[in-house]
Amino acid sequence: MTILLLSRTFLITATHDRVFKDTNGHIPVIKDSHGHTPDFKDTNNHTPVFKDTNDHTPVFKDTNNHTPVFKDTNDHTPVFKDSHDHTPVFKDTNNHTPVFKDTNDHTPVFKDTNNHTPVFKDTNDHTPVFKDTNDYTLVIKDTHDL
Fold first, then answer.
1. Is 143:8 a contact under the CB 8 Å cutoff?
2. How many domains does the chain have?
3. Residue 96 belongs to what domain range?
């Protein structure tokens, strides 16, 4: 199933040769409708930190087993927290792990350091809604649709 978390797009880039790719080898690129990378905020305008279900920070690997480094527009690594300063864990409305698709209906595969897929949800077992700095909901696009 395709989960659209957003109505605009934002850019996630990787540094050097660490490029996150989907399972077809395409590089997903996320940007807003003005072509800018928005700052990630939760619904209370706080910057949300990703942790896995054991409260560890998951390490994402691309299809070449490299760790992509995510940067914001000031070249800083964004840290995601919910409004209670807890790590969100993402689930869909049926408490299932959402399957993310790019615009070509390919599924990017996220792995932690133990080669497991991390599960994200917020502290109330709900899916947090991420807003950009203009309070718009974000949407994921890949480079082939931009």
1. no
2. 1
3. 1-146
Q: What is the pLDDT of residues 93-138, one digit of tens each?
A: 455 544 444 445 555 555 555 555 544 444 455 444 544 444 444 4
Neighbours of 114 (CB within 10 A): 11
Q: Which residue has the tokens 């914001």?
A: 72
Q: How far apart are CA 24 and CA 80, in angstroms?
A: 27
Residue with tokens 């993402």: 90
Phi and psi at residue 7, to the nearest 5°? -120, 5
- Using CA atoms, how far residue 89 sits from 10, 32, 35, 77, 127, in Å, is 20, 24, 28, 19, 7
pLDDT score at 34? 55
